[in-house]
Amino acid sequence: MPYSRSACHANQHGDFRTDCSGYVSMVWGLRHSYATATLDQVSHPIARADLRPGDALNRPGEHVALFVGWSDAARTKPLVREQAGPNGSPTIERVWTAAYAGTYTPIRYDHIVEGGVAEPAGPALHQIRNADGTWTPFAAVEGFSAPAKGQKVSMAGAADGSAHLVISSF
Question: Gene3D superfamilies annotated for this entry (predicted)?
Fold first, then answer.
């Protein structure tokens, strides 16, 4: 969706603004858009060293981006995916400098399942970031259609440089 601070995108999963926090809300599988200042209602701060794909870097009241991985061996320059504007701009993936990233708080969605995989009971979506940096569209995972109580987000990197993102309902 092209960036806009006023437009919304509605689909079968919810209604989302097409700005940075709407993008993170949609990827995290929330039912509506949270703002950068209210993402703390569904997330918690984590140590920078604990960042994993699917977490986010947030500056409340200003901007948020989805963490994809580290671009350097020192783990100082995050690769992020973000809706950054100006109006009409597509979602982009880019590397932030360590200094810029340091002005953001690392956060993790509250409903991540730690230490294993839970069997989803509701709709599940799958998206792949290809090794060349392009993303496939979200696609439904067959067999998951029960009503949802909440959302779980999982993202895993592969040796070929691709990443798989799964959003499932429980």
Answer: endopeptidase domain like (from Nostoc punctiforme) (3.90.1720.10)
Which regions of the chain carry the CATH code 3.90.1720.10?
A: 8-109
Q: Are 166 and 124 in contact (CB under 8 A)?
A: yes
The residue to which tokens 């959003």 are assigned: 167
Edge-first strand order for the sheet with 43-45 is: 43-45, 105-109, 56-59, 63-70, 78-82, 92-95
Q: How many angstroms separate the Cα of 95 from the Cα of each of 56, 65, 76, 79, 90? A: 14, 11, 10, 4, 16
Q: What is the pLDDT of residues 93-103, one digit of tens each?
A: 999 999 999 99
Answer for the pair 30, 14: CB distance below 8 angstroms, yes or no.
yes
Average pLDDT, the chain: 77
Does domain 8-109 fall under CATH 3.90.1720.10? My reply is yes
